[in-house]
Amino acid sequence: MKAIVYTETGDPSVLTTVDRPVTDPGAGEVRVRLVVAGVNPTDWKSRTGAGPGQKPAFDEVVPGQDGAGVVDAVGPEVAGLGVGDRVWLLLAQHERPTGTAAEYTVVPSDRVVRLPDDASFDLGASLGVPAVTAHRALTVAEDGPDRLHPGALSGRTVLVAGGAGAVGHAAIQLARWSGATVITTVSGPEKGALATAAGAHHVVNYRTDDAAGRIREIAPDGVDLIVEVAPAQNADLNVAVAAPRASIAIYANNGGDAVTLDIRPSMVGNLRYQFVLLYTVGTAALEAAKHDVANAVGAGALPVGEEHGLPLHRYPLDRTADAHAAVENGATGKVLIDVSPA
């Protein structure tokens, strides 16, 4: 099979195309023929490692946490999955040397979720990191639901920072599906149009609007949950618009690696700051996300494509390096790799 690998960390040029044997799944594992793979910031960050020329965790790494395809072999002790099942993957390469930038990948069965027949492989490859991260960010409130479903967030207002990104897009869609009023902040009209297409009820341009004032007009009592991508830049805004006992879920550090908080206003508001990292959220959170995201997909609540607020950028497998570079350079939308014919 064709696979993309790297043996040392660095820029996208360390990625090379190789031929490797197709391996059989072991106990509790399945083998998936990949149709489409997704690329996330975590993929290029892992590829760069601690610096150029360093050795990765394994002698050879096939990158890629997300993808979608068809199960073509099932190992012993696997229940609920069979050959021919259409599936999407999450955390395929976490603590493993082989991810989704290959024609076939072997993964533990608990990282494989069935994909409905009417859901595209593009959608399946766009779930994983973005949708599961968004799910966790929406379920961290101390007095909020730990599961998402229609009505779970009814009566609540959710603010999604950076609604045009992949996680922001998923957060908008999942929050709306769960009954929340959704506000999002964006940097310009093009991203505003994408956030609206994703389903945001209100879009605030933080470069041209008085963001805090506008959000308070929309939600006079404040917002109940903030899904935050740039905590350093937005610390003051979050305090200004948060409702009493609001939760701020931080899943990225865009704009700075350190946050300075004015303690007194956060204390007075009884605000709760929750950091979110997919790799360490724990089994219970992952299982809940898999179940709820699958239900949302089945309900048609997580569509992708520019008309749904998430433009798709496609690359063939042998141009995975270009796909990584596109994500690293801040491509708006979702970068996908066409691995094999559907």
TrEMBL record:
Keywords: NADP. Transmembrane segments: none annotated. Residues 10-337 form the Enoyl reductase (ER) domain. The keyword NADP applies. InterPro entries: ADH-like_C, ADH-like_N, ER, GroES-like_sf, NAD(P)-bd_dom_sf, Zinc-ADH_QOR/CCCR. It comes from the Bacteria. Pfam families: ADH_N, ADH_zinc_N. The keyword NADP applies. This is NADPH:quinone reductase.
